[in-house]
Amino acid sequence: MKSDSIIDSGLHISLDLDISLKANSFFQTNLVNRAHLANQLLLYDKIIIPTKDFGIVPILINWLGMKTFNKALYSGTFSFLRTKFLLGYQGKGVGLTGFFISPGEKEWRWWQEAIFGKIDASIEQQLRNMCPFIDRKERKYITDKIISVSKEIEHDSSFFEKNIINETYVDISNNKSLSMSILQSNKKILDKNDLKRLEGVKINEIRVLNLGKAIEDSIDLVLRISEINMEIFMSTLSDNADLFTSEGAELLLKDKLIRSGIGSTYLDGFLYLLELNNIPDIGKAIYTDSLSLPDIWEIREGENSKEFRKWLRKATTKDAKEIVKLYIESLKNKTLINSLPLKILRFAITSLVGAINPPIGLSVSAIDSFFVEKWLSGFSPRLFLDELSKINIDLAK
Predict the structure, then answer these.
(1) DSSP character for 165?
(2) Secondary structure (3-state) at 51
(3) Is it the case that residue 30 has pLDDT exceeding 80?
(4) Which of 98, 210, 236, 268 has the fewest Cβ atoms within 10 Å of its own Cβ atom?
(5) How many CB atoms lie within 10 A of CB 391?
(6) Contact, 94 vs 196, CB < 8 A?
């Protein structure tokens, strides 16, 4: 775990074309999300949050309180990756698509401008409408600071078509488990065109993925894998940041390398799992109001906690027991910690592909994959695996 940053899809609020206030409200009131942030604050120095409408900003203010939020923002703990398009699955044989809504004859409502408008207007709208207690001057300071720690994701349509949409279809077609699941649930011969015509969405409909729910059918699965490809792309924009992603994503990464000409024998050292057993479940303390997020912030800012995170960057699988020990020692309230249930954290650690001695003649210029090209050039993300959103599922049930 060399990176001190993580791109956290667990804090990404998936939006559709309904009123975004609904999705943001559900996200804010779900204690699982608050507990997730608590865990990440103790494991990472910097948390990079993907967003479309900056609706996460007033939620963070609500959870942390204004004082702690400002400390986190101005210390560089939070930064944001923003894309204005929505990723969806459309009927009538369109399949995966990225879409954007422009204002028509009617003006945008404020939450629509937050999704599709300029970055400054998006943040301003969220703060003005969801945090009316913040005065104009402070709102301007916060908006300017958030802009300074945000990146807008930009890429042309050909890049998106090749590296997100087509890459997703190839990922599924070349993975026996995933392709069989979709085949059995749709009763079709599986090829790229079939993946554009999956059952479950009407001709005039577009479905987007709700990241807070389990994958329920083939379309959800296709959307989740496309989101993983977007996450990998975003991580290349963020100094080799770790990823919070679905369990099973690590196998997709290996598949990408194999189909690009790197034989499986060359990838024996590409991937290994780091499992941290008997970690105190801080989330349980959040559920029961035994700890608040400002309490978590105080623990995080302690010297023991800072030293733990610094040491964690250099740790290997051989250090798993020591990691757990140091993590517990970094938590100051031992009486409370001892009363918490225990859980497991799982990381997939990827090695530098260029150091695996790939076959002679295989070069970056010969690779027809943005993602593999990045690995051969030295990109090696670490994956924080989310067991609740496994992608390798049996859709035939």
Answers:
(1) I
(2) strand
(3) yes
(4) 268
(5) 25
(6) yes
d(CA 210, CA 214): 8
**345-375: pLDDT as tens digits:** 888 887 766 555 555 555 544 556 788 777 7
pLDDT tens per residue across span 126-148: 999 999 999 999 999 999 999 99
Contact, 258 vs 326, CB < 8 A? no
Check residue 354 and give its pLDDT: 58
State how far the Cα of 290 lies from the Cα of 282, in Å rounded to an integer: 10
Cα dihedral across residues 235, 238, 242, 246: positive or negative: negative
Residue 307, Cβ neighbours under 10 Å: how many?
13
Computed from CA positions of residues 357, 361, 362, 365, in that sequence, does the dihedral angle turn out positive or negative? Answer: positive
Q: Where are the beta strands (DSSP E) in the chain?
A: 5-8, 46-51, 78-82, 86-90, 95-99, 150-152, 206-208, 242-246, 271-280, 342-350, 382-386
| Mean local confidence (pLDDT), 157-172 | 88
Q: Which two tokens stand for residue 334?
A: 């031992």
Question: Between the CA of residue 206 and those of 16, 39, 298, what are the distances in Å?
Answer: 9, 34, 44
b vs e for 244-272, b when ≥16 Cβ sit within 10 Å of the residue's Cβ? bbbbbbbbbbbbbbebbebeeebbeebbe
Residue appearing with tokens 């065109």 = 193
* Helices and strands, counts by H and E, the chain: 19, 11
Q: 170: which residues sit within 8 A by CB, 6+ positions away?
A: 259
Tokens of residue 288, six digits: 């029961």
* Two structure tokens written together for 299: 């623990």
- Helix (H) / strand (E) element for 259: namely helix 249-259
The pLDDT of residue 55: 96
Could you read off the pLDDT of 168-210 as tens digits, one per residue? 998 988 888 888 777 766 666 556 668 888 888 888 888 887 6
Rounded to the nearest 5°, which phi and psi values hold at 133?
A: -75, -10
CB atoms within 10 A of CB 347: 21
Closest CA to 295 of 33, 34, 55, 32: 34
Token pair in block for residue 175: 């993975």
